[in-house]
Amino acid sequence: MTDSDAPLLVIENLHAGIEGHPILNGVNLTVRRGEVHALMGPNGSGKSTLANVLMGHPSYSVTEGSITFLGEDMTGTDPNIRAVKGMFLAFQYPEEIPGVSVVNFLRTALSNKTGVDYTVLELRLKVMDAMSELGMDSSFADRYLNQGFSGGERKRNEVLQMAILQPALAIMDETDSGLDIDALKIVADGVNQMTGPERGFLIITHYQRLLDHITPDLVNVFVDGQIVQTGDASLAQTLEAEGYDSFRVSTDS
Description:
Elements: E1 9-18, E2 21-31, E3 36-40, H1 47-54, E4 61-69, E5 72-73, H2 79-85, E6 87-90, E7 97-101, H3 102-114, H4 120-134, E8 144-145, H5 151-165, E9 169-173, H6 181-194, E10 200-205, E11 218-223, E12 226-231, H7 234-242, H8 245-252
């Protein structure tokens, strides 16, 4: 198997929790280059926990299993190492950072990832190009990061970060939460522009509506801290029609 054939992400029997409380109960998932995965589950099922554990959030403890990214074991590594390697998390609730402009934040993030000390002008040109492609107003770049942003603006800013940093794996934690239809389409368009043979997506959601604009290669049903079924895009429509309870019942029988 060549490097290009190797999976981007392999999660094996992952168990994790917080303060001794187990949340993930044996997650198994493989994401390959060029694939868009949807992870769909009800509130409280552990979807956001999985996103945080994948990125190495220090509040969560892995008690069993492993996370392999680009052939390297990332299970116990620092979040910064994962980001530099090419993992990216779009947060469900992006934090605001007063006093730090969007363009300066992106300059620091990109320099840390690539090791190249970009000038403000160099980064501004990159940001302007990306914002133009995403249909964003250029004044956005000089606003303080997420300060005074609407929910839709915060999510669009996450997509802008993704466009600048060009991660190998983008994990999107309920990016559709709280978005109106126009903002939803902008986010979806940004994701669709970035899909390709060298990048994988893990889109975490509990609604099917984002998937009206992004067609996943695989849909993973996540219930009670584990993936209980995987199928093609039609599985999302089944979930929309039948809900999650039938999957929970089937795992207990």
